[in-house]
């Protein structure tokens, strides 16, 4: 009897893992699509803005 219960429990756990895997794959596919839609130029502009903000923050800290 214990063996049957353990098998049922493991089967349920396997289903949960499989469901989570399906969800993660869908999220991964969605992120890949979004990444393809994000133009390189826009990324470079954002990166330049972040670098500039970090540089300005460093200058402000040196002044204070």
Topology, element by element:
Blueprint: H1 2-37, H2 40-63
Brief sketch in words of this structure:
The chain is mostly helical.
Radius of gyration: 24 Å
Which blocks of ≥5 consecutive residues have pLDDT under 50? Answer: none
Order of helices and strands: HH
Number of strands: 0
* Structural class designation: mainly alpha
Mean pLDDT: 91
Rounded to the nearest angstrom, the distance between the terminal CA atoms is 73 Å
Instruction: Describe the global form.
Output: elongated
Instruction: Give the biggest beta sheet.
Output: none
Q: Provide the β-strand percentage band.
A: under 5%
Percentage of residues assigned to helices? over 70%
**What is the helix tally?**
2
Number of domains: 1
Overall description:
The chain has helices at 2-37, 40-63. It has one domain (2-63). It is an all-alpha fold and 64 residues long.
Question: Key features?
Answer:
64 residues; mainly alpha; 2 helices; 94% helix; elongated
């Amino acid at each position: 009897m214990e063996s049957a219960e353990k098998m049922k429990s493991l089967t349920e756990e396997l289903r949960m893992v499989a469901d989570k895997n399906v969800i993660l794959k869908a999220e991964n596919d969605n992120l890949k699509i979004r990444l393809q839609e994000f133009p390189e130029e826009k990324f470079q502009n954002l990166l330049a803005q972040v670098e500039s903000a970090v540089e300005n923050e460093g200058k402000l800290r040196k002044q204070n």
